[in-house]
Model the fold of this input.
Amino acid sequence: MSIANQKQEWETDIQWLSLGSAINQFRRMMRHSAVGRPVQPEDIRRELECYDFRDPVSLGELTNDVLRLLQTYSLHVTHPRYFGLFNPGVREAGIIAETLAAAFNPQLAVWSHNPIANEIEQHVLRQFADLIGFPPHGIAANFTTGGAEANLSALIVALGHCFPAWSEDGLSVLRARPSIYLSADAHDSFLKAARACGLGTSAVRRLPTTSPAFSMDPTQLDAMLDKDRGNGWSPFMIVGTAGTTSTGAVDPLPALASVAKKYGAWFHVDAAWGGAACMSPKLRGQIDGIGLADSVTWDAHKWLSVPFSAGMFFCKHPDAVRAAFSVQASYMPAYASETIDPYSTTIQWGRRAIGLKVFMALAELGVGGYCELIEHQAAMGEFLRRRLDEEGFEVVNATALPVVCFTHPAIRQGKLRTTDILQEIYSRGQVWISDVTPSGGERVLRACITHYETDEDDIECLIKELNRSMKKAQDC
Done:
């Protein structure tokens, strides 16, 4: 090897070491930095003006600048005091796995192109299927780009299963209009899925919920299905949610499964976030009945603390999955017997090794280790509820999962708005929470424990920021 080549390799190694050190330092110092700060679009665009892409930039200089930009202009969802959406702190094993996946760039369209990556994914999915209560063998399961794709997969499979003619001839051949049933707080990805499948959003039939449970009423569901069927609808899918985004609500899954059986409807459980409760003996009862579903959505990139994105789709009916997605393309490598070619059993075609990070995180922690992390976050949710009550706030949702929706008498009396409180909180950047209108009702504040290292000091910081922001907003 020439001296020039040796020097280039040495410089590349230094860059990798420097990058690893920078990432580790960022993770170590995260708790001592702001969660975010107010940012204006013009500030970022001004920063990017130097990149006109006419002259090359050295990789070392470029890497350092991108690190600076990400640290400066990001809302740090991996911060222990980020109490926002289901964006968790990430485990080191997931970061390493993502780096390996990028370096090897495995193509998972067909088994033969990367046997080990495909088998790793199926091995992990069987473990999670068993936790759900599905038989680990004889089902269909795959990783997805997220819960939206998994929910779309469920809708496509259910449509093809309940209306076989739809797959080839489309909706025009159906005598009745297919309809889907879910709670008012179920995920809006089903609206997109209904549009994508040609059903239209009017086919998505929402049922109201009431506080503090914010869950679907099976009796109301039964009555709506009976009425809709008499009005020319064809109820074919019922969606139960295990952990809604707004309130962490869990629908009564066993009762919904009974209604689905009565009407011959497909029963899908969207457990994108709450599915992780399967891994905790203390929380498992909160999602009782999930194993009764025909299909399940579960996102590892939510409560399992791996980098985006890693959705999972599970289905008890592998024949229905194959019928929905199977295609034969002459340019694809030949099928290997007793294996699964993901391009013919999923919406996706080519894709990266999504499941590697889940495999490495699960192997490093074990189910017991994950159980500890999940139960710790649930305990922090309970601690937050207690502290809010002590400080005069009112918790408005009832769930054992760590989503806390709350308000204050001053808000209910119209003296303060949630937006004013949030503006004060965001201006200091010490914590991050959001607001929400559960079931279209009153606007309340929402805090979710999303980081496995969030502790009581972080909760106390949130309480301090809330009180400070309330006082500042009232003074203004």
Summary: The two ends are 70 Å apart (CA to CA).
